[in-house]
Amino acid sequence: MMTKAYPLGPWFAHLAGPERCLAVEVDAAFWESGVQALPPGRLVSMFESAADWQVWECHPEGEELIIQIEGELVLVLDRDGAEERVRLKAGEFAIVPKGVWHTADVPVAGRAIYITPGEGTQSRER
Questions:
Q1: What DSSP letter does each residue of 46-85 carry, written as one string?
Q2: In a domain, 54, yes or no
Q3: Is the pLDDT of residue 78 over 80?
Q4: How many other CB atoms sit within 10 Å of the CB of residue 112?
Q5: Which H or E run contains 87?
Q6: Average pLDDT of the residues in 44-71
Q7: Cβ atoms 69, 113 nearer than 8 A
Q8: Measured between alpha carbons, how far is 106 from 51 in angstroms, rounded to an integer?
Q9: Section 56-82 average pLDDT
Q10: Which among 24, 31, 71, 93 has most CB atoms closer than 10 A?
Q11: Is the pLDDT at 45 greater than 90, yes or no?
Q12: Does the structure show a pLDDT above 90 at 18?
């Protein structure tokens, strides 16, 4: 198989165990059924945030690593009904604990890389 460059955003990298990486195209079919068809592992994605998130999310299968590469993000974690806020500036990262509901405010538009245990991810309106 030939090595190829993929644009992070429309494509995710899927870390499927210690020996395998998959390039995954992110389209409507991916969100409908493709994410469930992936082997166990972690999704590597990049998203741009220009406004506060409109949802809360939770990853019951493991911790999420968020690496801020541009701008600023304020993670808001729901710790048993109390909010914990963590400001991320470019070049900083945070680890969201397994099973903790979280959202984000965006004081400065930017981009972040997310390494997420995608299986079982839940979301609810903010």
A1: EEEESS--SEEEE-TTS-EEEEEEEEEEEEEEEETTEEEE
A2: yes
A3: yes
A4: 24
A5: strand 82-89
A6: 96
A7: yes
A8: 5
A9: 96
A10: 24
A11: yes
A12: no
